[in-house]
TrEMBL record:
GO terms for molecular function: ATP binding; ATP hydrolysis activity. InterPro entries: AAA+_ATPase (IPR003593), ABC_transporter-like_ATP-bd (IPR003439), ABC_Transporter_VariousFunc (IPR051782), P-loop_NTPase (IPR027417). It comes from Cerasibacillus quisquiliarum. Residues 4-228 form the ABC transporter domain. This is ABC transporter ATP-binding protein. It comes from the Bacteria. Keywords: ATP-binding, Nucleotide-binding, Transport. Pfam families: ABC_tran.
Length: 229
């Protein structure tokens, strides 16, 4: 059983077909890079998978749970790091982590251990009681990143992770990704920083004008993109 199955998924926005019959699979412990030029449909596909946008046809199944039939267990099977932080202005940094702990039923002990590790790694120890509005953009991105990394879900979905992070934070982020991969987490990642993604990913799928035009091993990526340009 694949960790993520995207089967013939189409999405229409403002009466325009943005995604056309996208089909691919992501297996346990695999890292799949979703690549394509600006406007190819990467964010639309990610938002469709996480349920921010509704697909018009097709099926999406995560770890055996179908988005249409079993939404609660579908949602518990992935965590999502969006391109722009989606923090709540009325919650402190710590309260965000506690909210994720509750939503994903993380035990108190694990939650505290993980929060300690991550806030130290991202240099946020003195920010736990701050509200998002008093944080810098990079700090908000770090908080959102920690929220996404706290749960141990079968699938981690990451949209443009390196935006706004300094070099130290990027190095720590890459280490966290490697830890997740070792644990068997499957990762779907999109980024314009292809050199970084190439170091992490096993396979890629290439979108062009809302269609999946190529997929394969990340090692073949350079040759193939040159051919399709
Ligand atoms: N709400 C919307 N209504 C209509 N069209 C939209 C909407 N959102 C995005 N689009 C269109 O969908 C297409 C795909 O956009 P999307 O943001 O998914 O691309 P992307 O591959 O993530 O691009 P980028 O690399 O620039 O982030 C574009 O042509 C865009 O203009």
């Amino acid at each position: 059983m694949p960790t993520l199955l995207v089967d013939s998924v189409s999405t229409v926005l403002s009466k325009k077909r943005i995604l056309e019959a996208i089909t691919f699979e992501l297996h346990k412990g695999e890292v799949l890079a979703l690549v394509g030029h600006n406007g190819a449909g990467k964010s639309t596909l990610i938002k469709t998978i996480v349920g921010v946008l509704n697909k018009t046809s097709g099926n999406i199944v995560i770890n055996g749970s179908d988005q249409d039939d079993d939404l609660l267990s579908y949602k518990q099977s992935f965590s999502y790091l969006p391109e722009e932080p989606l923090l709540l202005s009325e919650l402190t940094v710590l309260q965000h982590f506690q909210l994720y702990g509750k939503s994903y039923q993380i035990s108190e002990t694990s939650l505290h251990e993980r929060i300690d590790d991550y806030v130290t790694g991202f240099e946020l120890t003195d920010k736990l009681n701050e509200y998002p509005e008093s944080l810098s953009k990079g700090m908000r991105q770090k908080v959102q990143t920690i929220c996404a990394f706290l749960p141990d879900t079968p699938l981690l979905i990451i949209d443009e992770p390196f935006m706004g992070l300094d070099v130290y934070a990027i190095a720590y982020f890459e280490q966290l990704l490697k830890d997740k991969i070792v644990k068997g987490t499957s990762i779907l990642i999109t980024s314009h920083q292809l050199d970084r993604v190439k170091n992490i990913a096993d396979r890629y799928v290439l979108l062009q004008e809302g269609k999946l035009v190529q997929s394969g091993s990340i090692d073949d990526f350079d040759t193939i993109t040159r051919r399709t340009e």
